[in-house]
Amino acid sequence: MKVGIQGIPGSFHHQVALNCFGETCGISGYRTFEEVARSVNEGKDDVGVMAIENSIAGAILPNYELIDRYGLTIIGEYYLPISHNLMAFPGQQMSDIQQVKSHPMALLQCKKFFEAYPLISLMDDVDTASVAKRISDEKVKGIGAIASTKAAEIYGLEILAYDIQTVKDNFTRFILLKKQPEKTSEMPDKASIKVTIRNEKGSLAKLLSLLSDCDMDLSKIQSVPVMDKPWNYAFFLDMQFADYDKYQEALKKVVASGGEVKVFGEYLNKK
Ligand SMILES: O=C(O)C(=O)C[C@]1(C(=O)O)C=C[C@@H](O)C=C1
Questions:
Q1: How far is the CA of 199 from the centre of ligand 1 (A)?
Q2: What was the ipTM of the complex prediction?
């Protein structure tokens, strides 16, 4: 199984790939989410792992657009507990650190911790682990990384502060992406869809009550701009259901009421 991720060993994506596909899967690391989406679309990787939302920092909106543009299918999801740690080249104190680099989502999850250190500047980087690796390879002093304890272990860095995310219970939801939908033995109980509706008074309210009438349990609704129609919006919806037929009926009703529907995936809820 060839798995595409953004990041390198020690990153959270790498951990999810190992947890989902086992130690022997072949993992290719890319610098951007777009490269992951492209590699799955071109068949270079069988499956892509992509973070889509975090319980502190919220949705990674651009990733919804990537799934849409590259025509990928969501075949599953995975929730990983995330603990962030501040680490640096060994032998330094907190007072030696002038700058901290990490993945933008990781920085967002630790914003509160750094309020007590106004002299430390925060900078976006590719992924959590690659900063740790660079500090180690180039023996960089004065710069810290935010990453997992596993990354500190792999790259030989010293942890200056443990568990620095704003709330202790912190989760990132990852989605597993393939080029084509796959047949599963179990009936799906969750779906991710995109609905485009006309920008008219009450149209979103009508959509929501229609879904509720069909017993759809919405776990996510995210509006995204329709690029070629300024100030029009489409909605990415995640919904859970006990009855697959009712879900199919809901989709038909949305279309009958004038909505455009694109299904991104039907899979098993893992929450
Ligand atoms: O940089 C990493 O280690 C990642 O796997 C990326 C990522 C993300 O994209 O949200 C994954 C989980 C955490 O939320 C922080 C960063």
A1: 34
A2: 0.96
Q: pLDDT tens, 54-91?
A: 999 999 999 999 999 999 999 999 999 999 999 999 99
String of b and e for 194-223 (b: at least 16 CB within 10 Å)? bbbbeeeeeebebbeebbeebebeeeeebe
Per domain, the residue ranges of the chain are: 2-81+171-178, 85-161, 190-267
- Whether 2-81+171-178 shares its CATH topology with 85-161 is answered yes
Ligand 1 pocket test, pick from 3, 5, 6, 13 with the greatest ligand atom count within 8 Å of Cβ, gives: 13
Q: How far is the CA of 57 from the centre of ligand 1 (A)?
A: 11
Residues 27-56 have pLDDT tens digits of: 999 999 999 999 999 999 999 999 999 999
Q: Which of 92, 33, 81 is nearest to 54 (CA)?
A: 81
Q: Which atom of ligand 1 is nearest to the CA of 80?
A: 12
Contact 126, 80 (CB under 8 A): no
Q: Are 145 and 100 in contact (CB under 8 A)?
A: yes
Print burial letters for 16-50: b (CB count within 10 Å at least 16), e (below 16).
bbeebbeeeeebebbeebbbbbbbbbeeebbbbbb
Q: Would you say domain 85-161 falls under CATH 1.10.10.10?
A: no
CA-nearest residue for atom 1, ligand 1, is 127
Q: How many CA atoms lie within 13 A of 66 on its CB side?
A: 23
The class that CATH gives domain 2-81+171-178 is alpha beta
Q: Which fold has domain 190-267?
A: Alpha-Beta Plaits (3.30.70)
**In a mutational test of the pocket of ligand 1, which residue from 128, 164, 167, 173 has the highest number of ligand atoms less than 8 Å from its CB?**
128
